[in-house]
Q: What sequence folds into this?
């Protein structure tokens, strides 16, 4: 649910029938990281009634097999609900997945390329049937992450503007639609490995001074078994959704911080050594001095220097 919420830019709520009649309860939720979530507070455990959420109960009905739609008002804003039944292996409707999107994000999604929308629909089917493996190891998506879609042979069929700009930084200024990842001089092994293993993978790669985190989400083809579990049928992929997260600036800041921290430690070490050296020189001078008054003054100087050293070490 979390990775689907990030890609759909929508809040996901999973409803199940409660023990009380005409009541449903939110048993799970996923908030998007790519946009501001609709519900800042947690809704897990929240109960709803048939009067306030009739569309949920309509889809939750045992006789209902098709998805439904509804709408709610959240903080004076209309939110569109797409309600999808979750069925058990024997065909019973056991839950309802509510994909809730504000009207602005819904219009943006409707304007997206049909290839991307079809990939999201396939991903949603995999989530509903429990066929998305390894997604728990993926880090959340960000607002500035760039997704693109490849087919089973690794050819790019859709690429977002953000992902295209990232590849332009590497010198790929031409249109990448139809290009094969194998022909690019970049690290794309994680994509092919994810499709071969039919599970989500994530890897940090370095590309010509740019540091990226690549997430590869395989898309099972229509002939693969939709039943949960790897042993339930033949698993093959018709493509993958790849998401690129640019962490170049973050890694540069971390490197600069490490260098700065090392320099500060070295400076502190040098100051401490210099103070100890001054104290040692004053002691030597005091031992060689024949005047008691001079020796006392030098000893006082040693004490002052050592006091400064203690304060410096403490700070």
A:
């Amino acid at each position: 649910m979390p990775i689907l919420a990030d890609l759909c830019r929508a809040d996901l709520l999973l409803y199940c029938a409660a023990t009380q009649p005409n009541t449903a309860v939110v048993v799970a939720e996923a908030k998007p990281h790519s946009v501001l979530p609709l519900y800042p507070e947690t809704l897990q455990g929240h109960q709803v009634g048939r009067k306030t959420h009739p569309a949920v109960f309509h889809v939750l009905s045992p006789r209902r097999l098709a998805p439904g739609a509804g709408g709610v008002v959240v903080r004076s804003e209309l939110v569109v609900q797409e309600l999808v039944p979750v069925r058990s292996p024997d065909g019973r409707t056991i839950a309802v997945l509510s994909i809730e999107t504000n009207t602005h994000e819904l219009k943006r999604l409707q304007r997206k390329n049909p290839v991307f929308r079809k990939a999201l629909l396939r991903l949603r089917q995999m989530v509903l049937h429990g066929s998305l493996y390894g997604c728990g190891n993926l880090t959340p998506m960000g607002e500035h992450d760039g997704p693109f879609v490849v087919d089973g042979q690794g050819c790019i069929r859709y690429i977002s503007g953000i992902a295209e700009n990232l590849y332009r930084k590497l010198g790929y200024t031409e249109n990448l639609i139809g290009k094969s990842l194998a022909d690019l001089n970049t690290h794309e092994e994680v994509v092919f490995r994810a499709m071969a293993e039919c599970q989500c993978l994530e890897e940090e790669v370095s590309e010509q001074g740019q540091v990226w985190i690549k997430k590869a989400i395989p898309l099972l083809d229509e002939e693969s078994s939709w039943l949960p579990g790897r042993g339930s049928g033949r698993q093959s992929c018709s493509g993958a959704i790849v998401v690129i997260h640019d962490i170049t600036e973050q890694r540069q800041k971390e490197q600069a911080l490490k260098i700065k921290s090392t320099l500060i430690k070295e400076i502190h070490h040098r100051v401490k050594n210099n103070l100890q050296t001054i104290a040692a020189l004053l002691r030597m001078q005091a031992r060689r001095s024949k005047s008691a008054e001079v020796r006392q003054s030098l000893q006082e100087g040693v004490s002052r220097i050592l006091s400064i050293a203690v304060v410096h070490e403490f700070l």
